[in-house]
Amino acid sequence: MRLNQLSPLIDNIIEERGKQAPIIEGYIKNINYINGAIKELKAALDNLLQHPQVTNELKSRLQEFESASASWAGEIVLVLDRLENGKNRLARQAVTIGCSGQARVGKSTLLQTIGNLPEEAIPTGKGIPVTAVRSRLRHSHERKAILSLQDQITFLNEIIKPFHRELNLPVVNSLEDFRNFDYSSSELATDENVELLVRLQQMQAALSSYEKHLTGRTKIIEDLTQLRPWVAYPTQEEEKASNCSRLYLAVKNIEIQCSFLLDVEKFMLIDLPGLGEVNVDAEEHHVQGLKNEVDLVLLILRPTPQSSYWGGKDRKALNLISKSVEGISRLGDFVIIVVNHGEQDDKGLYEILINDIHKQLNENKPNSRYQVLTCDAKDSNNVREEVLVPILNHLIDRLPVMDKEVIDSSLTQWQGTIEKITIAINELETSLRTFPSQTSKQGKVFQKAKLLRAELAGKLRKEIEKLAQEIQAEKDEGTIIDQELIEAIENKHQEIYAWAKNGLGKGEEEWFKKAQGKFDEDLKVDPFATEEINRARTYLTNTYSQLDGYFETKIEQLWKSISEIISACTGNLIEETPTGKEALEKFLLLLGGKGIGDPFPALREATEYLLKCGKENAIFQSHLLPRLIEETQKLEPEEFNFNNISYKNEQVTKIVLDIVSQRIIQTSFAVQKRLKEKPFVSTILYSAAIKFGDSLVRATDVDEQFFDFASSYSNEIWTREFQAIENNHAIVKRTEQAVTNLKQLLNSSWEI
User: Fold this and answer.
1) DSSP code of 171?
2) What residue ranges do the domains of the chain occupy?
3) Exposure string for 358-383, b = 16+ CB within 10 A, e = fewer
4) How far is the C-alpha of 665 from the C-alpha of 687, rounded, in Å?
5) Residue 657: pLDDT over 90
């Protein structure tokens, strides 16, 4: 084929590919729709499993469908991945050839020759790997390099973190973490990981050379002789310098625009870093690059005295390339072997390698399975005639075939998945036909009212039983058992004790000073002593009266428990109202009915009585205060005899304070004992609960009142039950719709 015919034919291939790409995009959209429909069906079936009418047998069948759908999910992901790769393949604006092979086989030299590039653009070397960055060479009449730079996040994620993961090192989340990480620890280095650890140390040491370039931006270099430090590892001499630069670490990828030996506009080459390099995930990156970016791979070999046969490394390289091929029936369509040999190379070794390749790969039939090209990578004419022309002819002939195979194999895989889904859907429909027919809202309000009454009675009985058990326990013990109340009483006694010991709350020195002044003024002890006794008595009474706050808390707990019972039994009636007194007050308001009159007197009176059992019902005055008064009689002034104490006595203030404080402490101790010995809080709560329960569920005509109450508030009380019926209908409807939708999508899955 004439050289001037190559470019138009390549253009035709690109044009035909472009026509097919939207078709593949259509398949991808359809598959995504189906995938979404499957997820919706799974969600609908998850809800259906909670339906009260689902039988165990149907549950089992629905779960089988769920298990089967999990396997489709994996298949769908694979198909979508393959079709996305296929779409990207067809959407390329140039045929792309990847140059692969072990390091130092002449790969970079070949690319230099094809692009007429200087050594600095595609560096070569002897004895050590050179290419550090994957470079794309695009045929163009311009001459420049476009560098896509890493930013700090991609640098860490794509370069540093894989090393840390491989070496089981802590994660570095910032450039500062990387800068300050100690890689010199002797504990880190082992025979297996020393090479990777050295690489990390080198990258860390050179951070200052490339850190400022981690911008994520694009950099253009027009003088290609300045490109080497951006694409290549340092030379051995450069490695010896303490400030060795590693600019290549800031480069994500690079495109070099240059004029190829053949004037074929839509033609690109990719320089893949050498196989077998010491790097993390190097082979995986190699495979992904081949899979997603190239149409053909040139596997470049070179005979040497150490390697003049098709050996293990070559076989491994070919196997690695094969992993990137999905759907292509002949690997030889995708891979062409290029044997590089120069004038100075041993011709005998060259012939041995060629013969062994044909023996190992072509069954001694040259080019039967794999085409083998030979060239001198330094000779531009030789490269053009022996490499470029043959590979372009090969692509013109085989690329449309490979494209078709890639797409057809993906669609064949998808067809198999569709058949599995269709069979499962048909079986699911058969199973769903066994689902019981749905009932409408039924039941009489009277029946519901009886159930409501029974439910309230049962839950109130349990609450009352708890209070009764507490009363019995207190009777058995002969004292209160509520540790919270015991602690509250004891705390009050301690407050009074401390107050008495602290000069009746004034501080001893202050009290002595004030008492002496009053004694000298009155010329006797009685007036001031009587005043202080009365103050102490008042303090004691007021301090213990603060226990009423505890009693109020206990009543509020009872209110809370009973309001929670009412709320639990009456749906949305008082649901949004905070539990406790506020909820009971709302319940009482509702018991006033929706019109005139007193429609639910027994229910109303029970609730009113319960609400009256709070602090305003004088618990303190009626239960606690009498006990206090009885004990505080000992603090009457007449009980003290200060007549025999002279105000002139040098110890008079201390004597009086000791008498008063000791008596107040003794009285407080007696009060504390009386309160503990005569339980009453639990009895009050029990009586209130019993009264409420009897009035609410056992009063005369309560059945009729419950019926009237249920009739008035049926929507509020049983909204959930009625809503449940509606929800159950919706669950079934959603499942039916999901099945229908998925079947329609499956039937039209091939319509693009």
Assistant:
1) P
2) 1-116+277-336+381-436+718-752, 460-701
3) bebbbeeeeeeebbbbbbbbeeeeeb
4) 34
5) no
213 vs 75: CA distance, rounded Å: 42
Task: Please choose, from the candidates 742, 728, 717, 67, the residue with its C-alpha nearest in 3D space to the C-alpha of residue 422.
Answer: 742
Distance between CA 127 and CA 110 in Å, rounded?
A: 18
Residue in the block written with tokens 């393949």: 89
Confidence (pLDDT) at 669 = 87
pLDDT of residue 484: 75
Percent of the chain with pLDDT over 90: 33
Q: How many residues does the chain have?
A: 752
**Residue showing tokens 């089981």:** 168
Percent over 70 (pLDDT), the chain: 87
The model's pLDDT over 22-50, given as tens digits with 9 standing for 90+, comes to: 999 999 999 999 999 999 999 988 888 88
SS3 per-residue string spanning 629-648? HHHHHHHCHHHCCCCCCCCC
Three-class DSSP labels, 502-570: CCCCCCHHHHHHHHHHHHHHHCCCHHHHHHHHHHHHHHHHHHHHCCHHHHHHHHHHHHHHHHHHHHHHC
Counting beta carbons within 10 angstroms of the beta carbon of residue 442, is it exposed (0 to 12), middle (13 to 18) or buried (19 or more)?
Answer: exposed
Q: What is the pLDDT of residues 430-450, one digit of tens each?
A: 888 887 765 544 445 777 777
The residue that leads in pLDDT, 188 or 36, is 36
Q: Is the dihedral of CA 365, 370, 376, 380 positive or negative?
A: positive
- 203, HSE (Cβ side, Cα atoms, 13 Å): 22
Matching residue, tokens 């039209």: 748
Query: Token match 């009113």: residue?
Result: 608
Per-range mean pLDDT, top range of 279-283, 463-467, 516-520, 607-611: 516-520
Q: Give yes or no for a contact between 337 and 371, defined as CB atoms under 8 angstroms apart.
A: yes
**Which phi and psi angles does 136 have, rounded to 5°?**
-105, 130
d(CA 149, CA 218): 6
Range 163-184 average pLDDT: 91
Question: Which residue, chain included where needed, has tokens 């002890």?
Answer: 525
For the chain, report the end-to-end CA distance as a whole number of angstroms. 37
> Rounded CA gap, 403 and 83, in Å?
11
